[in-house]
Write a structure and sequence with these properties.
mainly alpha
Length: 62
């Protein structure tokens, strides 16, 4: 019985590690999409990155 519990705990820990890796991968992919989207919006609007302040970026986002 104890051996089964230990194996179940080990499997659970492995699944938890995989889940953490998947969550990191999802966050990374979402970040990439957000970056591409932002660049595309700026490009389509003929804006220059260096000229945008944080306030201007927030205004454009609205």
């Amino acid at each position: 019985m104890i051996g089964g519990i230990i194996m179940s705990q080990s499997n659970l820990e492995k699944q938890e590690a995989k889940l953490k890796q998947l969550n990191k991968k999802i966050k990374k992919e979402k970040y990439k999409i957000e970056q591409r989207l932002g660049k595309q919006i700026i490009s389509q609007a003929n804006l220059e990155y260096t000229n945008l302040s944080n306030d201007q970026i927030k205004l454009l986002a609205k």
